Amino acid sequence: MKRSINVVFISILTMLSSIATAQETKEDGSNKPMMASAISIEEQKLVIDSLLSEEFDEELENPSDSLYGNLWDNATLNPYQVSIDSIRDTFVIRHLDEYVHPIENVVTSEYGPRWGHFHAGIDIRLHTGDSIKCAFSGKVRIARANKAYRRKGYGYFVVVRHDNGLETLYGHMSKVLVKPDQKVKAGDILGLGGSTGRSTGPHLHFETRFKGNPINPRQFVDFDNNVILCDEYYVTKEESFKELREYKRHPGRYYTIRKGDSLSRIAKRHHTTVNRICKLNRIKATAKLRPGKRIRVS
Ligand SMILES: [Zn+2]
Question: CA gyration radius for the chain?
Fold first, then answer.
């Protein structure tokens, strides 16, 4: 990052000095500086100051370098452990217009609290084998297709760190087609959709993260039209992480579903209503209760 700043710095200096020393030979033979009086030392300083300002730095460079430094981990989803409260307000994610929607299909589950945990992404229906495309340009950080994860968590999944500072996660793939540290462009195929991990049917689990903390992708993606909503997105503590903060403030009480349970029985046992439980868990009253799953009851 420093090197390219220096290159710009030196080339501007060269340009300024060549302008300042350019001589025009007049017909009478005398030399007159062409533009020396137009650019004073003060003005040169101003140009240089603006070149070195943080704003210019972010505009010109890959901001993920300054955001994440040398922390590059091929195994851990969130190696940063940055609390939301310590995130700088506001950070601008630029150049979102390169966005390519990972898979064009209907949303089957929203971001937010669900079944006794925080669902940190959006689920999109697909057919096993459908291509999953990379949302923005960047570099593959995690590409997990180890058999040991066939039935666990995200299953086979990919995490890409983007040049714009975001990270995206693509879960439950049937096949991963990229390798860690591979550079990717928006629209490149990362793998094929599937139902590996904790999944009840073929879908893509899609997350967008900033410094390890999930942001609702709906903040900048229009899932009805499969397009980006803005060219720039401002990461703020209040708006970007509101669901997660709310969840952490009021985690609620949970019950682990047992065989033979019904929503009405669970509601009665916890002195609440089926309606209230459905709202808390964002499920329908007809939702299938799987033994071992957690459900929020207050
Ligand atoms: Zn999901």
Answer: 26
Number of domains in the chain: 3
In a domain, 75, yes or no: no
- Residue 121 CA to ligand 1 centre (angstroms): 5
Are residues 240 and 127 part of one domain?
yes
Distance 206 CA to ligand 1 centre (A): 7
* 83 C-alpha to ligand 1 centroid (Å): 23
Query: Ligand 1 center to residue 146 CA distance, Å?
Result: 20
Angstrom CA distances, 105 to 35, 170, 220, stand at 60, 15, 17
Q: Is position 219 within any domain?
A: yes
Judge if 155 and 236 occupy the same domain: yes
User: Who has greater pLDDT, 115 or 295?
Assistant: 295
Least confident of 41-50, 67-76, 164-173, 234-243: 41-50
210 shares a domain with 99: yes
Residue 55: C-alpha distances to residues 59, 91, 105, 133, 139 (Å)? 6, 11, 38, 31, 24
Q: How far is the CA of 123 from the centre of ligand 1 (A)?
A: 5
Reported as a single tens digit per residue, the pLDDT across 14-72 is: 444 444 434 433 344 444 444 444 556 665 555 554 444 444 444 546 788 888 988 99
> How much is the pLDDT for 37?
46
Which domain, by its residues, includes 51? 2-61
* CA 197–ligand 1 middle distance (angstroms): 11
122 CA from centroid of ligand 1 (Å): 6
CB crowding 61-70: b at 16 or more within 10 Å, else e: ebbbeebbee
